[in-house]
Amino acid sequence: MALRLFLFLLINFAALALGGLATSDGVVSLWYQNLNQAPWTPPGWVFGAAWTFILISFSVYMTYLWPRVKNHELLIALFTLQWILNVGWNPMFFNYHLVTISLAIITALTLLVAAIMITYYTVSKSKSLLILPYFLWLLIATSLNAYIYLYN
Q1: CB-based contact 5:59 (threshold 8 Å)
Q2: Range of 17's domain?
Q3: What is the CATH number of the domain that holds 106?
Q4: Mean of the per-residue pLDDT values for the chain?
């Protein structure tokens, strides 16, 4: 179990690292700072803290879920797709400034995480609370992206 947790932490934090590399200056960039942002946009430091907590929780969730799921191929496919969408949003938004495509990506990611949570609820029950921060943060992030899409 410890090895599985380590692997999920490694994979998930690799996504965070790749996303960080792909954001250029990210939330401190002139492009981002000059956008009309939602009034509920959190300060920049919240993003790193939130993602750290989310990825630890999600790694624990996946560690718990893995031995209880019969169809590992489906779980791997869903996990891989969420990983790709998660990493892919950063360069689309921060490097290429493709706000519409970014909104489509983050909306798909939010729906996918919701689908994972619902699909495996019967297997994970109370452990589903570990994926809930990811889903809630994605709702916030999607609303921030949507606001930027609508008002810029």
Answers
A1: yes
A2: 2-151
A3: 1.20.1260.100
A4: 94
